[in-house]
């Protein structure tokens, strides 16, 4: 299963995450305690291997804002965490991850109205759009037909529940606050999370 470490603001934890198996690194350009400037994001991205996905997180952006930050930083994937419409998503000429706040199974139904290949399922909204460290009931995922969409699971993930998250059969796990201490990325927690995901197989796969 793939892993995205989100909310990076410094080169060292980004490179450490990649060395330990992270498949994607996320940069928050929306209002957040993890918000990063395009200049700093560019510096980090320039140090990352080409094969690592560089994801920019936006909330209700304009097309001009997206295009400007893409050109300035080198991000290759756009993650939309606001109230963007399906039509707006369709108009973006880059790979899209559309995020949804999930509280009940009913919230899953709207994902099929969006034309993106990747959907990120996050916990209930708090002060910010995402990144609130709250998990939803993952059991509702097993009864829903996602069709061809690839699911990125977020919200409340941490080294302690990473093994349980593997059983959801999501395409990718997205962690941010769960690998932090005192609001900063914690290298030990990053390694512990990545080790758990990359070195653990669900029981069904082992049989």
Automatic annotation (TrEMBL):
Keywords: Amino-acid biosynthesis, Aromatic amino acid biosynthesis, Isomerase, Tryptophan biosynthesis. It is an enzyme of class 5 (isomerase). Residues 3-195 form the N-(5'phosphoribosyl) anthranilate isomerase (PRAI) domain. The keyword Signal does not apply. Belongs to the TrpF family. Pfam families: PRAI. This is N-(5'-phosphoribosyl)anthranilate isomerase. The lineage of its organism: Bacteria, Bacillati, Bacillota, Bacilli, Bacillales. InterPro entries: Aldolase_TIM, PRAI_dom, RibuloseP-bd_barrel, TrpF_fam.
